[in-house]
Amino acid sequence: MENTYSRYFIKLNWLTLIFIYLVVIAGSFVRITGSGMGCPDWPKCFGQYIPPTDEKVLPADYKDVYAVKRGKKIERFAKFLDKVGAGDVATKLRNDKSLLIEQDFNARKTWTEYINRLFGVLAGFGVLFVFVGVLRKYRTKKLVTLATLNLVILVIQAWFGSIVVATNLVPWTITVHLFLALVIIALQMGILLEVSPSQKSKFILPKSVRLVLWSAMIITFIQMFLGTQVREAIDGLVKQGYSRQYWIDNLGMPFLIHRSFSWLVLVMMGYLFWVNRKNHQLKIINTSVYVLVIELVSGILLAYADMPGLVQTAHLLFASIMFGTLFMTCFRMKSEFNA
User: Fold this and answer.
1) What is the Cα–Cα distance from 146 to 337, expressed in whole angstroms?
2) Quick one: 94 and 228 in the same domain?
3) Angle at which helices 7-32 and 310-330 pack, to 10 degrees?
């Protein structure tokens, strides 16, 4: 007998998904404003649950204090990397003295990072309450597995957030952070596929359409990581003194693949849009196409126009939404021969 889920439990799951997306948006905004080091410690901010607004309330030697704390955290993380066979990375972290250089206090950056953490707390409580609700009322094997995995990975994500801060936003840590965020989104959507009535109906599709949908979803997933590589490459070029007009020529293969995959996804989604013109059961496909168009426009503005800032946040947000809509569509499909 199929479980009947309360409307409050269903709303909790949708709200939790929204909070997770808000964390993605806030994290991107932190990145574009350079606020990642606005709080030098974690989970508190300057040793307080509510951060200061003026440098005058901080000790005169606060930079030295947090540099020492960061050094200890980096060493603990380096030892962990040694144990898992990543000794080369651990050595680089130990030898990178720039990681111990503290930034001057900036109230705007501090509160930007703090708000990002508040969204993280809301998402965390949402995932926790879903887990508790599953154990108390809806203890099916699938839901218990999904809710438990989501909670465990969220804890890992929170721990890794402290590593991102401790290592002063070392590029590869940002990529791992994004990967864990996408896994959390996927798991939360998996729960919604089980409990939300709006996600219960199945799409009966031919094999060719299912193949294109899966391909588009996988490529979109890859695209998000290529995007972080491109962003990191741009950061490196800026540090080397390259002006914007020279970025494209020096970004290398990751940018070329990222750009080519974008057009490939557009072709795939255009095909699905064309197929769907006669069969309107896949309204979500039309939504995905509109999201993709916005995503491509934001990407073009980032690459060829001097419009950074919020365009970067929009680019990541719509890529995440695109991934989410394709993910849910793929897992609601079934073969036309098994209808």
Assistant:
1) 29
2) no
3) 140
Domain limits at 39? 1-200
pTM of the model: 0.79
- Please check whether residues 147 and 221 belong to one and the same domain: no
pLDDT in tens, 113-162: 888 888 889 999 999 999 999 998 888 899 999 999 999 999 988 888 77
Indicate whether 62 and 90 sit together in one domain: yes
Six token digits for residue 138: 């809806």
Domain boundary among 166, 200, 234: 200
What distance in Å separates the CA atoms of residue 18 and residue 188, rounded to the nearest whole number?
10
CA-based R_g, the chain, Å = 22
For the stretch 270-312, pLDDT in tens is 888 787 776 655 667 777 777 777 766 766 666 555 555 556 6
Contact 143, 9 (CB under 8 A): no
Count of domains in the chain? 2
